[in-house]
């Protein structure tokens, strides 16, 4: 199972009002220290991994097949800093020749010099944080680019030979209307990019706009934010427009023109493949070891604050129990349009799947759950999801319906124990995969 590598760059030119990521505006002098620290961490990955009780054999015996530089705005770094990060990574890890190498870029930063640097770093995929092709909407949330900038930079990337480009859009931005949203989606399609991500505005107290909306205030254009129903309609409209244009949905928020153009890196999160992250708020999941034998995975995450990271606060480590691994397989796998194969899960988790997950008295589920005993955790989640029109089954395949994709967090919560729901573990995971 090839490894995915993630490197976080938590710096931005401005802090967008809707942003709930661990990123912020820092003086340029912080960049150099951060890059030095990153390079140090990458060089010390073996110590870290063995200290955390993870297995080397499985995740590291094959070369990594994806590198993802995210944030934040990695394209804010200068060329020499980017080159040092990639050199450190390639120095430490074997990487396949056809690896997907992605950098998240803010429109307005893709100068010819930067693109040249990206190519020297082996970057072959760029994810552009466009969010809206309507200048007023982009500006109202603190984005610094215009529609024309995005179009110029896409052309520049293509001219340089980087045509694997993804555009991010957000439904529910201030001032957005059905017409303006249709315009943004149509523009995305017209650019011909092979991949798009469509998110619905997240309203939580981790962003300035979210806090203002919760408080019912008017700062940050909060009073121009469309209501939830309108935002849900925008999302559905985007799904339909993209499908008609041949850009197929493969995950709740992600769309690609072909299977091989789906984000290899993000697929690792959703299918629980190993990945190793470096930098602020970087998450990892690796296989654990028990006295030399392979065991259940270990998740670990570096601190969310730059200060804590620079002061070497150690990562938080979460061993994944069999129960948690099954829950994760449900709520991550169901994000994908192809859904999950319950027979495969049964084979993978064996007795644990049968013991905690299903009961013999489940009249509305198919034979894949038959004959098992114990408390009905996922059994009842599946049954209620189907009854409520949020899940559909086809043989042993379980997937979200169209409505289920809109209410996915509600569906996922049903697969978690009460304890995990209280801890907010599931929503944390959603945030992780949405970045
Ligand atoms: S949305 Fe992106 S560019 Fe804006 S503040 Fe957050 S990480 Fe930075």
What this model shows, in words?
By secondary structure, the chain is α/β, with parallel strands linked by helices. The protein has two domains: 4-269, TIM Barrel (Alpha-Beta Barrel); 323-435, Arc Repressor Mutant, subunit A (Orthogonal Bundle). Helices cover 43% and strands 20% of the residues. It is built from 19 helices and 15 strands. The chain has helices at residues 28-43, 45-51, 56-60, 79-92, 112-120, 135-140, 147-159, 178-191, 208-215, 228-244, 264-270, 306-310, 322-333, 342-357, 377-387, 402-406, 408-414, 418-423, 425-434, and strands spanning 4-9, 64-71, 95-105, 125-131, 165-171, 195-200, 248-251, 254-256, 275-278, 283-290, 293-301, 316-319, 340-341, 391-394, 397-400. Strand 3 (95-105), helix 5 (112-120) and strand 4 form a beta-alpha-beta unit. The longest helix has 17 residues, at 228-244. Residues 358-375 and 425-435 have low confidence and may be disordered. Bound molecules: iron/sulfur cluster.
